[in-house]
């Protein structure tokens, strides 16, 4: 029964698993590609503070007005590390989203972004394959999710099949070594069995953490299992705190500067990212998202402030990583685990090779199935000659 499940479930999900794993391997190094292909995202670190939001936005506004021929409203501003440019966003018209990149030390405009770069377009294409199998989201997401659930089953049944009935020198060699000097069928079999075993834990973790993004029921169950509670949208509630609408006028000039300075005082040092989203509706607050660590997102948290009084508004999203329970920490780390960036470059390299092995398993498995019981041409020729002689 175990072998039957492994075989037929593997055949049923093979093409989707191949595409999902191959695109996952490509996605792992997106930051490195962006770093080298988009020079406007980086600046030379200087031994002086960043300019406050009001100064950068004023410079961006003057630039945007020349470009658009009219004034624009900026929706947010984002600061990076000491070696990253800052950028501010605006929508020139409905359906368009532009960004102005600036040097955070002197306010010099570095780039006017009006659409995805070539590298971004490539990775958008890669992500559509990884998340949706290049299908419309409503169709592709459950297809990918179901295939990943099947893949988990095939990984477990494969491990059971791999486990020898008796441990001898011969079975140890077959289980842990690839016999490169064997015929191509033996090499293919070893690539499937041996590489599958070595990559089992990592591929299983990457797959399970990815199913979270395909099925809300799986997300809620996974979160409940880890934390004892479940919320919508991968742990983020849409019920944000609101500004007090009884105040009709701001109590402070340059509120973004005040909040920016408050955040910098509370979180000194180099931050991975600091984003200030400006209120648009009357009851919207200032929403400040802080990521202490560049290259990961699991320590990210959001603080909310009344748009008029600048009083901080309590929210579950304001909880820091250090204040979370063990289960909440594991759940918060899910995306970074899934894309292999949890511990930086070493785990990204590990995820890259594990994803490649994951992509190879349906291929080597199909070859094993296709040529099962079939003799090579040489063997068939010898057998035919023997039958003629006799």
Automatic annotation (TrEMBL):
Pfam families on file: PepSY_TM (PF03929)
Keyword Nucleotide-binding: no
UniProt keyword annotations, A-Z: Membrane, Transmembrane, Transmembrane helix
Transmembrane domains' residue ranges: 7-29, 143-163, 195-215, 349-371
Protein known as: Putative iron-regulated membrane protein
Originating organism: Dyadobacter jiangsuensis
